[in-house]
Amino acid sequence: MSVNAAQRPAEDLYATGQHRVDEAARFLNLDEDLHAVLREVKRVFQVHFPVVRDDLSVELYTGFRVHHNLARGPAKGGIRYEPHASLEATKAQAMLMSWKTAVMSLPFGGAAGAVRVAPEQLSSRELERLTRRFTTEIALLLGPERDIPAPDIGTTPQVMAWMMDTLSMHAGFSVTASVTGKPVEAGGSVGRVEAPGRGLATVLMHTMRNTGLALEGASVAVEGFGSVGATCARLLAQAGCRVIAVSDHTGGWYNGDGLDIDALERVKAAGGHIGSGGVPGEPVTRDELLALPVTVLVPASVESVINADNAAHVQARIVAEGANGPVTPAAEAVLAEDGIVVVPDILANGGGVTVSYFEWVQDLQAFFWDEAEISAQLERAMLRASDRVWAYSAHHHISLRAAAYALAISRVARASSARGIYP
């Protein structure tokens, strides 16, 4: 039996999350005891489980499921399959989900999960066995009224379908509301795949209007041309923006006149790399992309992309966090000094969990909406949340991030206080 271990520890993002809570608690003059509760996770569940590989060898994997706070409803959060997944990073993601669901006014608490695995190194059968075994290991936490997982980095709608089917086999009947982000054929919602990018584009365009910036001709750079970044880029281009640079793990591509986003998406869909041919432009590195003098910069890949080492090089007017935690606190201080507006992740990328909420509701009611209704409801939810954050920011003369966190944490604090302490 071989052991699948992390090759390096992940950055301690949990400390950053606690730092954000501490700042908001001081601003809100939060009760010390309640502050102490909100800056820690409620529950940590770690599992070690074997999986039979196709060659009949057995490999041991490590997985996590973390609940941060459940005062506002059942736990909601993604499952990541990452080779360097860590408990600390999973705790940070769970805490972030509490604030994200609260700022979006969704009736959920925060959760996150992960398995330490490189999914691309597994066959489809191995991936299914790993998913079903991990689901079984954490099943005592899961359910439509308790904890509803969703896809995240390294997981897909197919993985969610396997999770739902496993829970349904345990229950003896179909429990479609037990996970979200499933294929439409298995109880998923139309519009769910594009929801994070669509919500991001909606909030970003709202931010541009609020800062007096015109959409037509505005230059945009997208770091992380995956599902979220590509959808956002396409919608911004359709709105009249000029997307001049994109990048992913394979490299980057630049065209000062504007990239053909549809063509780039076709290249990726066919298995090609950005800049592998057929799209006018030239190569650009991620560092070069982050330093471009653009109207809007969208970091949409992973955490801590903009940090103390490169923040001074950022020349964008607006930085919209398409990923979770792409701007570190030290970097944000530098951006603030330069007058750069940062749209925080708990607002900017709230579209995914919002349509996950729609999916959960549709599964519980066995009544499904069409895509036009999903898109309209998502736009209303994103604009409502953005309006409230902007109004709070203006009223208190604080940053958008400080406003979003203050709103979210105050909502969770009020729910926790109203429920009291049991017993």
Provide an overview of this structure.
By secondary structure, the chain is of the alpha/beta class. It folds into two domains: 42-181, Leucine Dehydrogenase, chain A, domain 1 (Rossmann fold); 189-403, NAD(P)-binding Rossmann-like Domain (Rossmann fold, 3-Layer(aba) Sandwich). 44% of the residues lie in helices and 17% in strands. It has 14 helices and 13 strands. The strands form two sheets. The chain has a seven-stranded mixed β-sheet, sandwiched between helices. Strands 1, 2, 3, 4, 5 and 6 form a six-stranded mixed β-sheet that branches. A hairpin with a 5-residue loop joins strand 2 and strand 3 (58-67). Helix 1 packs across helix 14. The model is unreliable at 1-11 (pLDDT under 50).
Write the layout of secondary structure elements.
Layout: E1 2-3, H1 13-28, H2 32-38, E2 43-52, E3 58-67, E4 75-82, H3 87-103, E5 109-116, H4 124-138, E6 147-151, H5 157-171, H6 195-210, E7 219-223, H7 227-238, E8 242-248, E9 251-254, H8 261-269, E10 282-283, H9 286-290, E11 296-299, E12 318-320, H10 329-337, E13 341-343, H11 345-348, H12 351-365, H13 371-396, H14 400-419
Parallel strand pairs: 1-3, 4-5, 4-6, 7-8, 7-11, 11-12, 12-13
Antiparallel strand pairs: 2-3, 3-5, 8-9, 9-10
Helix pairs in contact: 1-3, 1-14, 3-14, 4-5, 6-7, 6-12, 6-13, 12-13, 13-14
Instruction: Provide the domain count.
Output: 2
The third-level CATH topology of the largest domain is Rossmann fold
What is the general shape? globular
**CATH architecture identity of the largest domain:** 3-Layer(aba) Sandwich
**Stretches with pLDDT under 50, minimum 5 residues:** 1-11
